[in-house]
What does this fold into?
Amino acid sequence: MKFKKVLCILTAAMMVFGATACGGGGNTDSGTGTPDAGTEDTGSAEDESAGQDADAGNEEADAGAETETDAGESAGLTGTLKVAAVETAYGADMWKDVCAAFESSHEGVTIELTVDKKLEDVITPEMKSGVYPDVILRAVGAESGLTETFVKDNNLVDLTDVLAMTVPGESVTVGDKILPGFVENSICNPYGDGKTYLMPMFYGPCGLFFDQGLFTAKGWTVPETWDEMWELGETARAEGIALFTYPTAGYFDAFFYALLHESMGNDKFQEALRYGEGIWDTPEAQTVFDIIEKLASYTESTTPANANDNDFQKNQQLILDDKALFMPNGNWVIGEMAEAPRAEGFEWGFTALPAVTAGGERASYSFFEQVWMPVGAENQDLGKEFIAFLYSDAAAEIFAKSGAVQPIQGMTDKLDGDNKLYYSIYDNGAVAVMDAFAATDAVEGVTTRATFFDPVNSLVTGDKTKEDWVNQIKTDSDALRAALKE
It folds into this structure.
């Protein structure tokens, strides 16, 4: 996929991670820190040449490791690997199949797989007792903040060497297979030290979903600017239809980042992500607050009551029932609502955010999930081999059957139908945004979600004014700026 990219690459000092939305994005945002060839982890064969001349032994071990890697096996890597993955709309079967495929190509390896919709509830008690999974698939931006906690506590294994590893069973490296921008961002490089600690997995463009069938029947045009959006809002209101809804306020992460980038441009956007002093008083920031305040007044009134992890699908159903026009989400919503009833003639539509000014940037945040290893993982070498395998064509094919698309070369060419539509959004002029607020040390009572996104519920209900929200953002930003990780 040819991105019309503004990939929000931070300088080496930046340490950003976010939502999600993704997942989430989210999610959305110096270099990859790819190590020299000599640092590539090829297993323990190099250390098993006792009794031989050191140089000759190393050469022989390197050759053996290369042969084993090409065959899809890694010399000396056996044992039990603990893998934990959150179950999303893609389901659990794909993880079972991928783990089985890894076991079949790696003799002597057994995988203990944990897949659960509430993964944190399952693995946290064991982790508190010192027993950690070796590999975890859980994106930043989750309500639990699990991944952010590991980032803040510096409890992640450096995975930079995985980028230089040859994909098991193939002749290309992991780094060469991953699409540009998906590693070179501060979600994957949260400390700004040029090292990769989280690896990008499934991704999905985030934008506004709507019923194309309704627009066709009404003769309505999808707004290209926010002024056109407000005009449509009045038209829809006259017919008893709300302009907007959202699943939960957490979905404003991708929305907020894209809108912020549209209004500010990349330089000020990066400053905002690091809670820059005075940034929220700029005209560009005020434009963002004004748009969200006005959008809240056009939001279906029942939305906040259902904007939680148990009832969020009721808000999504508003789009299918033609009771609201637009909803921020990622393409996983198609699977989530596959069996839900819908209005006659319903057809999924998808668009980037309207531009702040006519002819201006239209942005779409690209949420992506991440896979990582906790420092407490006992089988780290095998874990890295497994992560490298996740980027193989064999694994990608398994994931794709469940609708999970990875940011690797050639994947979009294999898509069709709805997926082709959504993943081609960047080919159709949208700017891709992949970044999020900077990582900080823990600040008691303050999280980026609680500060920037959750208050939208109160804007809709009227329990909080725009001024209340902005003042909270300024106060919390001061605290977060002081706690930035250096």
Q: What stands out?
A: The first strand starts at residue 4 and ends at 5. Residues 90 and 403 are 6 Å apart (CA to CA). Residues 1-74 have pLDDT under 50 and may be disordered.
